[in-house]
Design brief:
The chain has 193 residues and is α/β, with parallel strands linked by helices. The protein has six helices and seven strands; from the N terminus they run αββαβαβαβαββα. The longest helix has 14 residues, at 15-28.
């Protein structure tokens, strides 16, 4: 299934970049289901996040779809020599010691773009986690965004653009709901408990 990309989310990358992304997705056998929303402000939460291959898959998908997605990643992957490229591909570095930098970057995205998707993994790491991070709830609230759930299933090689999640106001209940939702998908390695 080919996802339809709303015009306000098109990245207009060079054709060689789009071709490379499509080639990587095609030869690896991955498919997408669901659709990208027309909404102007979306926080996309993806999971389970269990492997470095998740990043390769995500970048291949972003390039193949020619979609502009801003994604939050650990500051340590934004190494010298790759920093500019990763930022150009939508990367927003997060350093837990300096959270104000993340807030500044997200404010800049909100100010600069008429429509945006900010992607984040609620696990916050590739390691096995007992509890999800709640930063996506705060980001969605501060940017007045809807929350879209996207499941990555390595056993079926599918990326499922699922439903919107409406927070209840009970953070623990919401995090458990999201954890249960991602529990339906098989990561590269067993990640969520």
């Amino acid at each position: 299934m080919k996802l339809s990309i709303p015009e306000h989310l098109r990245a207009h990358r060079p054709s060689l970049v789009r071709w490379l992304g499509k080639l990587l997705i095609e030869i690896s056998g991955w498919k997408t289901t669901g659709e990208l929303p027309e909404d102007r402000r979306v926080v996309l939460i993806a999971g389970p996040h269990t492997s470095n291959w998740d990043f390769v898959l995500a970048m291949s998908l972003i390039m193949s779809l020619d979609v502009r997605i801003h994604w939050i990643g650990k500051h340590s992957i934004f190494k010298k020599g790759f920093h500019r490229l990763l930022k150009k591909m939508g990367g927003i570095p997060v350093n837990r010691v300096k959270p104000e930098a993340l807030k500044r970057e997200i404010n800049e995205v909100t100010r600069k773009y008429k429509g945006f998707i900010i992607a984040i993994s609620p696990e916050g790491t590739r390691k096995k986690v007992e509890r999800l991070k709640s930063g996506f709830l705060r980001i969605a609230n501060e940017t007045n965004s809807k929350i879209l759930m996207v499941g990555v299933d390595f056993s079926k090689k599918t990326i499922e653009f699922g439903d919107f999640f409406s927070p209840s106001g009970d953070k623990e209940k919401d995090l458990q709901f999201i954890k249960d939702y991602f529990g339906k998908f098989t990561g590269k390695r067993s990640g969520l408990t």
